[in-house]
Write a structure and sequence with these properties.
Strand order of the largest sheet of chain B: 3-4-2-5-6-7-8-10
Shape of chain B: globular
Number of helices of chain B: 7
Distance between the termini of chain B: 36 Å
Strand content of chain B: 25-35%
Strand order of the largest sheet of chain A: 2-1-5-4-3
Oligomer: heterodimer
Largest interface: A-B, 21 and 23 residues
Shape of chain A: rod-shaped
Structural class of chain B: alpha/beta
Number of strands of chain B: 10
Order of helices and strands of chain B: HHEEHEEHEHEEEHEHE
Chain lengths: 681, 166
C-alpha cells in the first residue's frame, strides 16, 4: 500500500515549521517583542481589512443591485414614450445613454406583443431572452445579472426592458482595486509599526537586555561582583533587584565554596598521601588480605594474597572467594557461623586451596568492616601463612613429649621438696611441743613426791604419831595437798602439749598422704569454715607467738563455707603465718602484730588476709617472691610461696602479695572458692 | 387594444390610423394646469375635414386614456367656445389657411393643439405630425405648450423628431 503523498509533503513542512518556531524562540528578546507586536498588529489589520473588504463586497453587491434597479426604472420610464409612439429609433437613442454605464452589457426593449422593439449593446437571441422572463428584480445569472423591468404608461404595461449587467467584471475590478489598497495599507502599517516598535520596544526590552548582558558577563567572567543598575520599578525592576540579590548570595557562596574547595583539596592531598601510605602497607603486608562484600563477592585482594595462594584478582572477580578457597561446604559454613557469632573479630585455622591445587595451612582473622555510617559493608580476612608454624607445632609436640617426661622427674623432686618443707614446718611445732613437754618434765615436782614418800618410809610404824606430833609430819599432808595440785596442773599442761604434738604429727601424716596422692592430682575437697582453717593454722604456730611476743588480731567477717582440700589450705596458711612471724622477728618495733582477716573478696570468693607490720617487701622482690627457689630466709628453701601459689590455684583460688615497701609490712591474700550449697560434703 | 394599435402600425397601418392612435397617447405625456385639466372624459376636438375618412372615430371608439373615456367632437374653426372646451384639438391639414385664427382662439387656454400642416409647430402649434421614411413622427413646441399652461413630458420631447419654439 502506497503512502499518502500528502503526508510525505506534510512532513517536511512540519519540520520546516518546527525549525522556524525553534529559530524564532532563539531570537533576541527585542526582536521577539517586535515580531510579536508586528504579528499581532498584522493579524488585527488583516482581520479589519478582511472585514472591511467583506463589507465592501456586500455593499457593492447591494449597491450594484440597487443601481441596476434604479437604472432599469429610469430607462424604462425614459423609453416608455418611444415604445408608446412605436419609435424604435428614439428608443435606441434613449438606450444609448447606457453607454455611460460600464457594467451594462446589453439592454433590450420588448414590446407588448413580445417582439423585440429596440436594443442596445449585446443582441439577445430568442433563447437568451427567455432567461429574463422570470427575473423581476436584479438577479445573478452566471457572471451576468439580469433584470426585467416593465415599461408602463398610466399603469398600463407597454412592454419590458431587459437589462444585462456584467457583475463579475465589476466585482473583479473592485476586488483587484481593493486588494491593492489593502496590500498598500498593510505594508504601510507594518512599516509604521516597525518604525514605532523600534522606538517603543526599548522601553520594555532595554532593562531585559541589560539584565541579559549582566548575566552573560557573569557567566563568561565568573565575576559575581557585577550589579545591574535598576532602571524601572516594574516587574523588571523587581527582577533586577532579585538578580542583584542573587548575585550577592552567589558571590558569598562562591567565596565559601572556594574556601571549602581549598580545604577539600588539602584534605584530598592528605587523603592521597594517606592512601599511598595505606596502599604501600597493604601491598607490602606480610599477611594476605581478602575483602569480601556482604554477599561473599570478592572486592579486594592484596599482592601477598596472590603470592600466598596463587589466585589473582581476575580469578576471583565477582566470585565467592571463600567457596573458591574452601570448596568444602562445611568449613565454609563453619567460618560463616563463626563470623556471624562473633562479628567483631575471629580467628580460624584452616587449610585453603592454592591455585595449583595444593593446600596451604593458614590462620584467618576475620573482621567485620563498617562503612562511614556504621553499616556493615563486608568482611576483611587477614590470612597468615602458618605452614612453618604448623611444622614447628609438630616439632614442638615432640619436644613437649620429652619435656613432660623430664618435668615429671623434676616434678617429683619439687613434690619431695614441698613435702619436706611442709613437714619441716610442722616438725618445728612438733619440736617446740616436745621441748616444752621435756622442759616441764625436767622441772617436774615428781622428785618432791619421791622425797615425801621417802620421808613417810622413815617413819614406818610411827607414822600416825609423826603425823600428829612431829611438826614436819604435821606439815606433810598440806605439802602433799599442794604437790598433788601442782602435779595435776603439770599433768594437764603435758597432756595439752602432747595433744599439740599429736595434732602436728597427724598433720605430717596428712601432708605425706596428700603428696602420696599427688599423682591423682585431686585432693579431697571438704566443705569447711574459713575461721576453723585459720584457727588450726594459728594453733600450729602458737609457741612461736608467745616466744616472740607477737599479738594476733582476728578480724573475721561472717562468710560462706569454702570447698577446699584442707591440708593444702593449712599448708598455705601455716606458711603465710610463719612468713609473717619471720618478718616480725627481724622487725625492730615494739608492737608486733599479725592481723588475720576473713572477708568476702571482690571476685565472689572468700579472702583470707594475713597482714603483718614487719619488715615489708621491696617492690623489686614483690614479683619474684612466687618464683621457684626465691627466699629471703637464710635457711629457707624458697618453696613456700611458690608451692603455696600453685596449691591455691589447684584448689581454685589464688595467692597474691602486697607491700608498700621495706618497713611497711606486707599483706598476703589467699582466696578460696565457696562451696556450692548443693555440693554434697 | 394597444396591442392592436401597435400591430396595425407594424403591419403597415394607414397614416391616419397611426395618427388617430397617437392623439390620446399625447395626452398621457402632458401635464395640465389644475384649473384646465380634463374631466372624466378626455375631449378630443377635430377641426376641419376628417382626412381619415371616419377612421378617427373608428380607431378611438372605446379607447380610454388614464381611465378617462375619449369623447371625440367635431368642432368648427369659428366656434371659439367649442374650441376652448376641448382638451386636445386636432387641426386637420384642410385648415392650414385658418391656422393662425384657430390657434389664436385657444391661445392661453389649456388645450393641446396638434396639427399636420407643415408650419403648424412654427405657427405656434404644440405638436405637429410629420412623415419620415413613411413613419408617423412628430415635432414638438414645448414653449407654445408652456404658454398655454401645459407641461410636456421630457419623454415625449425625447421621442419628438424636432423640438421648435426654442
Amino acid at each position: 500500500m502506497r503512502s499518502n503523498p500528502s503526508s510525505s509533503v506534510a512532513a517536511p513542512l512540519e519540520r520546516l515549521f518546527s525549525r522556524a518556531v525553534k529559530g524564532a524562540l532563539s531570537l533576541p528578546l527585542a526582536t521577539k517583542v517586535r515580531l510579536v507586536i508586528v504579528l499581532v498588529a498584522s493579524v488585527a489589520l488583516l482581520v479589519v481589512v478582511g472585514a472591511v473588504f467583506a463589507l465592501q463586497l456586500q455593499i457593492f453587491r447591494t449597491t450594484f443591485a440597487r443601481d441596476l434597479d434604479a437604472l432599469a426604472t429610469i430607462m424604462a420610464s425614459n423609453a416608455s414614450a418611444a415604445l408608446d409612439f412605436s419609435d424604435p429609433q428614439a428608443a435606441v437613442e434613449t438606450l444609448s445613454a447606457l453607454r455611460a454605464k460600464d457594467s451594462i452589457v446589453g439592454a433590450t426593449i420588448i414590446g407588448s406583443n413580445g417582439e423585440r422593439f429596440a436594443h442596445f449593446g449585446r443582441a439577445e437571441t430568442a433563447e437568451s431572452l427567455r432567461e429574463f422572463s422570470s427575473v423581476s428584480t436584479a438577479s445573478a445569472n452566471g457572471r451576468h445579472w439580469l433584470l426585467n423591468e416593465p415599461i408602463l404608461r398610466d399603469g398600463q404595461r407597454l412592454g419590458s426592458l431587459y437589462l444585462r449587467a456584467d457583475y463579475a467584471a465589476r466585482r473583479g475590478e473592485l476586488i483587484r482595486g481593493s486588494l491593492g489598497i489593502m496590500a498598500a495599507v498593510l505594508v504601510g502599517s507594518i512599516v509604521f509599526i516597525l518604525l514605532l516598535t523600534a522606538r517603543l520596544q526599548a522601553f520594555v526590552t532595554r532593562p531585559v537586555a541589560q539584565l541579559a548582558k549582566a548575566a552573560r558577563d557573569v557567566a563568561r567572567r565568573n565575576d559575581y561582583s557585577i550589579r545591574v543598575p535598576k532602571v524601572v520599578d516594574d516587574e523588571l525592576g523587581q527582577l533586577t533587584d532579585a538578580f542583584n540579590q542573587m548575585l550577592g548570595e552567589i558571590q558569598r557562596q562562591d567565596a565559601d565554596l572556594q574556601a571549602a574547595r581549598e580545604n577539600l583539596e588539602q584534605q584530598v592531598d592528605a587523603l592521597a598521601v594517606s592512601e599511598t601510605r595505606f596502599r604501600g602497607v597493604v601491598e607490602n603486608l606480610g599477611e594476605a588480605l581478602l575483602f569480601v562484600g556482604l554477599n561473599g563477592e570478592t572486592l579486594f585482594i592484596n599482592p601477598r594474597f596472590t603470592s600466598l595462594l596463587g589466585w589473582r584478582e581476575e580469578d576471583l572477580e565477582g566470585k565467592d572467594a571463600l567457596k573458591v578457597l574452601m570448596p568444602d561446604a562445611d568449613r565454609y559454613s563453619l567460618l560463616l557461623t563463626h563470623e556471624g557469632a562473633n562479628p567483631a573479630r575471629s580467628a580460624l585455622e584452616v587449610q585453603l586451596l592454592h591455585r595449583d591445587g595444593s593446600h596451604v595451612w593458614t590462620e584467618i582473622h576475620a573482621s567485620s568492616m563498617r562503612g562511614p555510617g556504621g553499616e556493615l559493608i563486608g568482611t576483611l580476612a587477614a590470612i597468615l601463612d602458618i605452614t612453618v608454624r604448623q611444622r614447628a607445632a609438630d616439632d614442638l609436640q615432640e619436644i613437649n613429649q620429652r619435656l613432660i617426661e623430664a618435668s615429671r622427674t623434676a616434678g617429683m623432686a619439687e613434690v619431695a621438696t614441698g613435702v619436706l618443707h611442709n613437714v619441716g614446718n610442722v616438725l618445728n611445732s612438733v619440736n617446740v611441743a616436745a621441748a616444752l613437754a621435756l622442759q616441764k618434765l625436767r622441772t617436774s615436782k615428781v622428785p618432791n613426791l619421791r622425797k615425801a614418800a621417802a620421808l613417810l618410809a622413815t617413819q614406818n610404824g610411827s607414822l600416825a604419831e609423826w603425823l600428829t606430833n612431829d611438826p614436819q609430819g604435821q606439815r606433810l599432808p598440806g605439802y602433799l595437798q599442794k604437790l598433788s595440785e601442782h602435779l595435776s596442773a603439770e599433768n594437764a599442761e603435758l597432756i595439752d602439749h602432747l595433744d599439740h604434738l599429736a595434732t602436728n604429727v597427724e598433720h605430717i601424716k596428712e601432708i605425706v598422704s596428700v603428696q602420696q596422692n599427688y599423682a591423682c592430682l585431686t585432693g579431697v575437697r571438704e566443705t569447711l569454715s574459713a575461721e576453723q582453717l585459720v584457727e588450726d593454722a594459728l594453733r600450729m604456730n602458737t609457741a612461736k607467738f608467745t616466744r616472740h611476743q607477737i599479738a594476733i588480731v582476728r578480724d573475721f567477717a561472717p562468710t560462706a563455707a569454702v570447698a577446699v582440700d584442707k591440708h593444702k589450705v593449712l599448708q598455705i596458711l601455716v606458711n603465710l603465718i610463719g612468713n609473717a612471724k619471720h618478718a616480725l622477728e627481724q622487725a625492730p618495733q615494739l608492737r608486733k602484730e599479725i592481723t588475720i582477716r576473713i572477708a568476702r573478696s571482690a571476685d565472689g570468693l572468700v579472702g583470707v588476709q594475713v597482714v603483718d607490720n614487719g619488715v615489708g617487701i621491696p617492690s623489686e622482690n614483690l614479683t619474684r617472691i612466687f618464683q621457684h627457689g626465691f627466699t629471703t630466709k637464710k635457711g629457707g628453701h624458697g618453696f613456700g610461696l611458690h608451692s603455696g601459689a600453685l596449691a591455691a590455684r589447684e584448689i581454685g583460688g589464688s595467692l597474691t602479695a602486697h607491700s608498700d615497701g621495706p618497713g611497711t609490712g606486707a599483706t598476703f591474700t589467699l582466696t578460696l572458692p565457696i562451696a556450692a550449697s548443693a555440693t554434697p560434703v | 387594444m394597444l396591442v392592436v394599435l401597435a400591430a396595425s402600425a407594424a403591419f403597415g397601418a394607414s397614416e391616419y390610423e397611426v395618427k388617430a392612435a397617437h392623439l390620446p397617447k399625447f395626452a398621457g405625456y402632458i401635464q395640465w394646469p389644475a384649473a384646465g385639466s380634463p374631466g372624466s372624459n378626455l375631449i378630443i376636438g377635430v377641426v376641419g375635414r376628417d382626412p381619415s375618412g371616419g377612421k378617427l372615430e373608428q380607431t378611438l371608439s372605446g379607447v380610454t386614456v388614464g381611465g378617462r373615456q375619449i369623447e371625440l367632437r367635431r368642432v368648427s374653426s369659428s366656434d371659439a367656445a367649442a374650441l376652448r372646451a376641448c382638451n386636445v384639438l386636432f387641426v386637420s391639414a384642410s385648415e392650414e389657411s385658418r391656422l393662425e385664427d384657430i390657434l389664436h382662439k385657444v391661445e392661453g387656454r389649456p388645450v393641446l393643439t396638434i396639427g399636420e400642416s407643415a408650419n403648424f409647430a412654427a405657427s405656434g402649434g404644440m405638436l405637429q405630425f410629420i412623415i419620415i421614411d413613411g413613419q408617423v413622427r412628430f415635432v414638438a413646441n414645448p414653449r407654445a405648450a408652456a404658454q398655454s399652461g401645459l407641461q410636456m413630458n421630457s419623454n415625449l420631447l425625447r421621442v419628438a423628431r424636432r423640438v421648435v419654439g426654442g
